[in-house]
Every structure is written in C-alpha cells, then in structure tokens.
Write a structure and sequence with these properties.
The structure is a single chain. This protein has a 3-stranded antiparallel sheet with strand order 1-2-3, with no helix packed on it. It contains 2 helices and 3 strands, in the order αβββα. A hairpin with a 6-residue loop joins strand 2 and strand 3. The chain is an alpha+beta fold. Bound molecules: iron/sulfur cluster. The site of iron/sulfur cluster has 12 residues, from loops.
Amino acid sequence: MPALFLVSIVRLIEALCRQMRKARAARPRPLCTDCVHAHVQYAVNGRRAIACTFAGGVRPVELDVMYCTDYRDRNTAPRLVQIGFARPIGNPDLLGEVALTEN
Ligand code: SF4
C-alpha cells in the first residue's frame, strides 16, 4: 500500500512539472530581448535576467515588457545623432552649381 501511494505521488509531481514546462514555453518572449538598450543574461536552466540601460543607468527589468516607448530594434543600423550646432557644409550656392554641372 505505501508503494502505491509513493508511485501516485511521483506521478503527480511529474504531471505538475510537465504542466509548468508547457506553460513556461507558451509565454511570448519579452520585448526587451530584442532591444538595443537591454543587457540580457541567460542561465543554463533557460531563465534570463534583463537589465535596461536606457539613459545611462542599469535597472533590472522585473516584468515581461510587451510595449515600451524607448524600444529600439537591436538589428537596425545605429542612428546618427548630432549634438550641438553644426557648421554648414560648404557654400550652398556652390553645391547647386556642382549639381548642375553633373547633370
Ligand atoms: S528601453 Fe524598454 S524595451 Fe528596451 S530594454 Fe529598456 S525597458 Fe526594455
């Protein structure tokens, strides 16, 4: 009788583990895993730790982000940002003449 009880307990634990694995696999990946601002660490057991580095700080992300206003795709080309005042490139009238002569 105790063996039958033990077998049923083991079967119950196996079923619970199977359900937990299935539920974990069905969850969508968080948006941060594809974001250029994310620092993502993957553990051997499949868990991941995400930290957001937007605006210079490093903050742990403790929820699965589905939408973020600061999201930027990790696979796109970096955006060139100009800081400060820029001097004009050459004389615009001269550039127009050059463009006319090439046509
Ligand atoms: S900017 Fe938004 S999407 Fe990108 S890592 Fe930070 S929280 Fe996630």
